[in-house]
Amino acid sequence: MSETRSRMMIASPIMINWISFLFSVYMTKNYNQTLEILDSIFDLYEKIEKKVPFEYSEVILFKANVLENMGEIKKAIKFVEKK
């Protein structure tokens, strides 16, 4: 993630900004960076007191999908089972 973009995202922990950025990177098929952004989103969810279960589960499934697209099916299964 570029340093400028990273600073902007950290300064603005609004979920819709993260999700928009996530999908823009995902659409370029940059799966490694997509996983980095997903990890940042999970970190952000950990700080939120009132998690929306539906949103959180969608992010979990999306990360599993990215891992599957990368050919990391076993990692995807382990990730879903862990969550």
Description:
By secondary structure, the protein is an all-alpha fold. The chain has one domain: Serine Threonine Protein Phosphatase 5, Tetratricopeptide repeat (Alpha Horseshoe), CATH 1.25.40. It contains five helices and no strands. It has helices spanning 3-11, 15-27, 31-47, 53-69, 73-82. Helix 2 (15-27) runs antiparallel to helix 3 (31-47). The longest helix has 17 residues, at 31-47. It is globular and about 35 Å long. The two termini are 25 Å apart. The mean pLDDT is 83.
Contiguous uncertain segments of 5+ residues: none
| Major beta-sheet overview | none
| Mean pLDDT across all amino acids | 83
Number of strands: 0
Number of helices: 5
Distance between the termini: 25 Å
Summarize the structure.
This protein has 83 residues and is mostly helical.
Give me the secondary-structure topology.
Blueprint (H helix, E strand, L loop, with lengths): L2 H9 L3 H13 L3 H17 L5 H17 L3 H10 L1
